Amino acid sequence: MSDYRIETKCLHSGYTPGNGEPRQIPIYQSTTFKYDTSEEMGKLFDLESNGYFYTRLQNPTNDSVAAKIADLEGGVGAILTSSGQAATFYSLFNICEAGDHVVCSSTVYGGTFNLLGVTMKKLGIDATFVDPDAPIEELNKAFRPNTKAVFGETIANPALVVLDIEKFAKIAHDHEVPLIVDNTFATPVNCRPFEWGADIVTHSTTKYMDGHAAQVGGVIVDSGNFDWSKYGDKYHGLTRPDESYHGIVYTERFGKLAYITKATSQLMRDLGSIPSPMNCFLLNLGLESMPLRVERHCYNASKVAEYLNSHEKVAHVNYAGLPGDKYHELAKKYLPKGTCGVISFELKDGREAAVRFMDGLKLASIATHVADAKTCVLHPASHTHRQMNDEQLAEAGVSPGLIRLSVGIENVEDILADLEQALKLA
After folding, report:
1. 57-79, pLDDT tens digit by residue?
2. Cα separation of 264 and 56, whole Å?
3. Can you give the three-state secondary structure of the chain, one letter per residue?
4. What is the reported pLDDT for 394?
5. pTM of the predicted protein model
6. 365 φ, ψ (degrees, to nearest 5)
7. Low-confidence ranges of the chain (pLDDT < 70)
8. What pLDDT, on the 0 to 100 scale, is given for residue 256?
9. Starting from the edge strand earliest in sequence, which strands make up the sheet with 402-406, in order?
10. Distance between CA 58 and CA 349 in Å, rounded?
11. Given this model, what pLDDT does residue 41 score?
12. Angle between helical axes of 277-309 and 412-423 (0-180°, round to 10)
């Protein structure tokens, strides 16, 4: 499908029906798959042949959807997970172990901040959080001899900082580590990080890819561009024999698919954060309409951002699509077709006004979710980033009165009318 444009790929990539076969991806709702001989099954467990034997590792429905997303991002392979959090964890844990270190943008999603700053620290993996806007000289100071990866978000949730992907890719590669980018908010419709030097991309497929709040899921896509063999001592999990698979060396056996194969055959085998085939089927339905929805999200969000930016009760608006936004120039570079449908803003009267505003909304829902077809709103300091202290909130770009507004695909006039009546109560 490499010659087709992304709108076509969203419909056709990953699955090609044969004569008389189902036009839509079938749901292989089965845990296991039958074989005629013990030898055939044994080759699968030795990774000597391709096929399916247990859905915790692979499933035809899941693999078709993973292949579609890999094609959308321009990667060599992908693995679906049970959530975006699982995708973030697997993307790092696939190359990190106790004693290792990660450099991460400080403005990432609160759950990611907690994953790296608390949970992975318990596993012996340390993280240094850096200001994504810091100069290269300052960022270089965050690296250590045991640094294994750099992590950031194309558009940070909820601070809406646009990552300078090219800058971060250069810094990561100068220190001989891969750049992993969470591309959830931008989607491959608006940004393909591999084209700017990123090595691995993750998504919470729960968001725009699904688009209807119908399933929870995640995905990891590998570009195939990072040369793990070049730094064999650093990435020995990929470049040395895996005794749990009879001494297989992933880079030797699987080449550019080494990273994804290891994540599937080792992490998914042992940790098991798989999505169900039904969830993958629902995700695929969302992917088919994603370009249309993303375009509408961006159009509506631009109108809402302009409205809020001129409202007397609004102190400031964060939306890179606005010409005066701090990240507008980076958005023009990396996201020329539009940023996303998410806006964050703060009211002049602070936190209490934010609560009154949110409680006064009628069309928009107060929800922990974001980036689906329906407009919803959230107060990060009280919800997604509640575990952070004031200093950490400041580093993440989350002020006490910040409101995150996920603009849906309703008629924009109805969205604006709802905001107007709620702002009168704020």
Report:
1. 999 999 999 999 999 999 999 99
2. 9
3. CCCCCHHHHHHHCCCCCCCCCCCCCCCCCCCECCCCCHHHHHHHHCCCCCCCCECCCCCHHHHHHHHHHHHHHCCCEEEEECCHHHHHHHHHHCCCCCCCEEEEECCCCHHHHHHHHHHHHHCCCEEEEECCCCCHHHHHCCCCCCEEEEEEECECCCCCCECCHHHHHHHHHHCCCCEEEECCCCHHHHCCHHHHCCCEEEEECCCCCCCCCCCCCEEEEECCCCCHHHHCCCCHHHHCCEHHHCCECHHHHHHHHHHHHHHHHHHHHHHCCCCCHHHHHHHHHHHHHHHHHHHHHHHHHHHHHHHHHCCCCEEEEECCCCCCCCCHHHHHHHCCCCCCCEEEEEECCHHHHHHHHHHHCCCCEECCCCCCCCCEEECCCCCCCCCCCHHHHHHCCCCCCEEEEECCCCCHHHHHHHHHHHHCCC
4. 73
5. 0.95
6. -100, 145
7. 1, 383-387, 396-397
8. 97
9. 314-318, 342-347, 402-406, 376-378, 365-366
10. 52
11. 87
12. 60
Contact 77, 221 (CB under 8 A): yes
Q: Exposed/middle/buried for 246, CB within 10 Å: 0-12, 13-18, 19+? A: exposed
| d(C-alpha 163, C-alpha 248), whole Å | 37
- Residue found by looking up tokens 């990240």 in the block: 327
Over residues 100-147, the pLDDT tens digits come to 999 999 999 988 999 999 999 999 999 999 999 999 999 999 999 999
